Amino acid sequence: MKEDSTEKLECSLEDCPWCDTTGDVEKNRRTYWGIVGLIVAVLLILLLVSIILK
Description:
Elements: H1 2-15, H2 22-52
């Protein structure tokens, strides 16, 4: 009976490969907001430079 439960556990992990991806999702979220922050910072720098050189 114990063998059946381990086989079911192994099967369920194979059927559900995305179950252990929470770390990847969190990493992707950090990367996304890091890129957004970088783009906003570059746009602000360009805005300030254009105001100063006006």
